[in-house]
Amino acid sequence: MKKSNFVTIATTVAAVVAVGMFFYLAHISRATSYLSDNPKNCINCHVMNSQYATWQHSAHARVAKCVDCHLPAGHGLATYTAKALDGLRHAWAFTLNEFGQRIVISENGKKRVQDNCIRCHSTIAATLISNRDRFHDFTNSQVNTDSYCWNCHRDTPHGQVRNLASTPYNLDVRELK
User: Fold this and answer.
1) pLDDT tens digit sequence for 144-153
2) Residue 172 — φ and ψ, nearest 5°?
3) How far apart are CA 168 and CA 87, in angstroms?
4) From the CB of residue 48, how many other CB atoms can be counted at a distance below 10 Å?
5) If you write DSSP's letter for every residue of 51-91 in order, what string do you get?
């Protein structure tokens, strides 16, 4: 067999194996499910079960899905870019076991959630922001007037659950009817 034929065959086999592995990994990771806004997709891996279970019991469950708070508003390029980057970060952390018992939102994620709090609650947020000088003690160095909404609204919408082990049925989320 000529050397050029061997290289062609080896390259073709390697390409077929790589494409096959890609489709296999996409299938077992349910990758296409993440293109929708269904909250159940956030628990494809059990890591987010605590967040899903506590969200189900919150007032937000009736009016907002995970993507409404955690991704940029709208369904354009920014939304899918953020979704892809978060997905890659989550996949990396899950695959390499680099997450702790307590799931912590990224700095970029914090900004998106804050922007969405203000967007959905624009009337009250505008009033609070315009009156913050009246309601904060600026002589107290520990008061942060540029804090996040959840610094006061700690239990919205995920309750007081702060780790994977604290939600009942964590590995088998019970659906609310």
Assistant:
1) 556 788 887 8
2) -145, 80
3) 25
4) 20
5) HHHHHHTSGGGGT--HHHHHS-SSSSHHHHHHHHHHHHHHH
